[in-house]
Amino acid sequence: MSKLTDMPKRILIGRALQSDKLGETLLPKRIALPVFASDALSSVAYAPEQIFLALSVAGISTIHYSWWVGATVALVMLVVVASYRQNVHAYPSGGGDYEVATVNLGGNAGLTVAAALMVDYVLTVAVSTTSGVANLVSAVPSLHGHEVAISVTLVILLMGMNLRGVRESGTAFAIPTYGFMIGILGLAAYAAIRKYFLGAQMHTVSAGFHLVAEPGHSNLAGLAMVFLLLKTFSSGCAALTGVEAISNGVPAFRKPKSKNAATTLLMMAVMAVIMMISIIWMGNLTGLHMAGSNSQLIGAPAGYQQKTALAQISQAVFSNFTPGFYFIAAVTGLILVLAANTAFNGFPVLGSILAQDRYLPRQLHTRGDRLAFSNGIIALAAVAIVFIIGYGANPDRLIQLYIIGVFVSFNMSQTGMIRHWTRLLKTETDPAVRRRMMRSRVINTVGLCCTACVLVVVLGTKFMSGAWMSCLLMVVFFVTMKAIRRHYDRVSAELVPAEERPEEELLPTRVHSVVLVSKLHKPTLRALAYAQVSRSLRTSKLEAVTVNVDPGDTATLRRDWEQRGIEVPLKVLDSPYREVTRPVVEYVRALRRDSPRDVVTVYIPEYVVGHWYEHLLHNQSALRLKGRLLFTPGVMVVSVPWQLESSERRRKPVEWIAPGQVRRGDINRVQNRDTARPRAVSQSSKDSDE
User: Nearest Cα to 277, choosing from 236, 245, 306?
Assistant: First the structure.
């Protein structure tokens, strides 16, 4: 540890890992399942509850439809998982739905998927965390009223754990995930034993209350009943969230990556379906009554606080075994909170790919000290906290915004996969391979039909309940990313060197040095001395230095350097921890140690921009470098500005009008020569003409 200031960082996230240790962070299937599937597995804790809540508006007469809705959701999940297994094998690079849509449907389609996935990841963190806190409050009622503070604290803790690296966070999350799976299956098995072998009667607390329909929803029939069932189905489809995470995280798996990812996807689907159907069965078995408001529960005492569906079921099943109830409450709360880890693994990877494609700030592209995409993790946590605070940590309100994004990506992805197989079938001649491709295309076609129907249902039933916010956020993300890409493209085009020797490379005939002086003291004397030495002496050695953060970028730089024929030698500094500042600072200090009497001048190119938001996209590394080098003795830092067209200095200057020019009539000739350019007359010119 070279700096005392690094100590808090090392304590919080651990020692930095070298880039060649990336292989050690790859995940086996037993760890990948809780890392990438915790969202889909945890959704069975609230998806059945949403089914019961949606049906409750029509009273007790519609509760028996929960079976049919649950079975339909399970069928759709299996179809979607089968479709995504094709994605995993066809596109194992980790781009997931974004890559599939971009390659097969075009850039705008890919960007639409990216915007939808980003919204979904943010809401995954918010919904999972607040749902976990709601389960915790059901078990510990004294925490009621502190949901927002607890949720925000948990998001910050999750952020810190993920900053320590994917493998470490996955190991920490494995125990609660497997504990939840064992708990739900054990709960269902214990309920079956008590019911069919011991003949016990198990009833939830709400089973003793009479559930009545909301005003205007009694005796529904015809289209009204169909709409209710569709709305219930759309609520239950929250169980499908997180299915896409594995296809986005294939690079994190051990080899063979595609096979291991596809196996993990299948394991997740089977477990999620079994657990969801088990909870619906236990809800009907114990007479569970979930209500949107206490006014629907006739016989409920004043001040009755409705517990979550899973809490009521476990309390009824474990009525003679209290530790079992607290175990279910504990693992459910943990898995719901840790389900946000799926988003913490998916969002940063997607952000890195988008940054590489210049749709997001470049800071999101590189890995941090622990080989995790730290900036993406922090950004996700910050946005999720805003939603949690804005919606008062209420999962029932947040879940209305949910699943729109994921089903938009589902549809785009399946459409892209159909085009992918159609394109390959045009050139493939092997009959066996063609049969596999045609089978995959059929699977993706069925998946598209299912997800398209679900998307229409969800939009039709949830749009006015809050889903419009998700649609608006997707548009905002889409427009923002397009604007960032246009900016980066404009800057890249502006900075491309011309074929002939440009004016910027011509040596100046002389250098005019200016030393700003406020008073005569030691800093002024040193600045004057350095200016005099620079004026009288030539530089003894000149070299260019770059830091090898990305080997591909470094190789491109070397190739361009040689093709350009630049005589200045290029030195590459290795950076095993993907840092830019430290290697440069250490190299400069080494030069000082070798020649203590020499002065080292570091020239730092910087962009000069004209808008405040452009500062977020440029010069971040330059600021960090200057901050470190300015405190290094014997080192002079020179900023070399390049004014972009957005800056004031690159705009066409207003031609100066000399005193008397208007009176002599010269101004007319100037205006006729360039009528398109506006002219400004200074106050002094006006005075002299008058």
Answer: 236
First to last CA, the chain: 72
Residue 50: CB partners within 8 Å, gap ≥ 6? Answer: 235, 236, 238, 399
- Share the mean pLDDT of the chain: 77
Rounded-to-integer distance, Cα 5 and Cα 576, Å: 20
- Write the single-letter amino acid at 310: L
List the one residue out of 71, 411, 68 whose CA is nearest residue 228. Answer: 68
So what's the pLDDT on residue 532?
Answer: 59
Residue found by looking up tokens 């079956």 in the block: 192
90-116 confidence digits (pLDDT tens): 887 766 788 889 999 998 999 999 998
How many CB atoms sit inside 10 A of residue 568's CB?
9
- pLDDT score of 290: 85
Residue 677 backbone phi and psi in degrees, to 5? -90, 130
Residue found under tokens 């002219």: 679
d(CA 148, CA 154): 10
DSSP 384: H
Element housing 411 (H / E): helix 404-425
Q: How far is CA 410 from the centre of its chain?
A: 17
- 254, 28 in Cβ contact below 8 A? yes
**Largest CA-CA distance found in the chain, in angstroms, rounded:** 113
Cβ pair 334, 40 in contact under 8 A = no
With CA atoms as reference, report the closest residue to 243 among 30, 42, 26: 42
DSSP code, position 570: E
Say which residue the tokens 């007359």 belong to: 681
* CB-CB contact of 401 with 123 (8 Å): yes
Q: Which amino acid would we find at residue 163?
A: L
CA distance 67 to 232: 11
- Predicted pLDDT of residue 663: 53
For residue 686, is pLDDT > 50? Answer: no
| More confident site: 570 or 52 | 52
SS3 253: strand
Confidence of residue 321 (pLDDT cuts 50, 70, 90): confident
- Residues 6 or more apart whose CB falls under 8 angstroms from that of 135 comprise 45, 308, 310, 311, 329, 332, 333, 336
User: In this structure, what DSSP letter does residue 27 have?
Assistant: B
Beta-carbon count within 10 A of 79 CB: 20
Reference 210, options 49, 66, 59; nearest CA is: 59
Q: Burial, 91: exposed, middle or buried (Cβ in 10 Å; 0-12, 13-18, 19+)?
A: buried
| CA pair distance 167, 511, nearest whole angstrom | 55
Give pLDDT, residue 314. 93
pTM for the model stands at 0.66
- Cα distances from 130 to residues 161, 391, 441, 522, 639, in angstroms, run 18, 10, 39, 59, 48
Q: How far apart are CA 398 and CA 389, in angstroms?
A: 11
Question: Are the beta carbons of 13 and 160 closer than 8 angstroms?
Answer: yes
- Residue 685, pLDDT score: 39
* pLDDT of the residue at 537: 52
- What whole-number distance in Å separates Cα of residue 393 and Cα of residue 144? 11
Distance CA 89, CA 412 (A): 17
- Sign of the dihedral defined by the CA atoms of residues 231, 235, 236, 240, in that order: positive
Q: Give 656 or 465, the one with higher predicted confidence.
A: 465
Decide: 153 and 411 in contact? Cβ < 8 Å.
no
Partner residues linked to 548 by β-bridges:
574
608 pairs with which residues across the strands?
A: 643
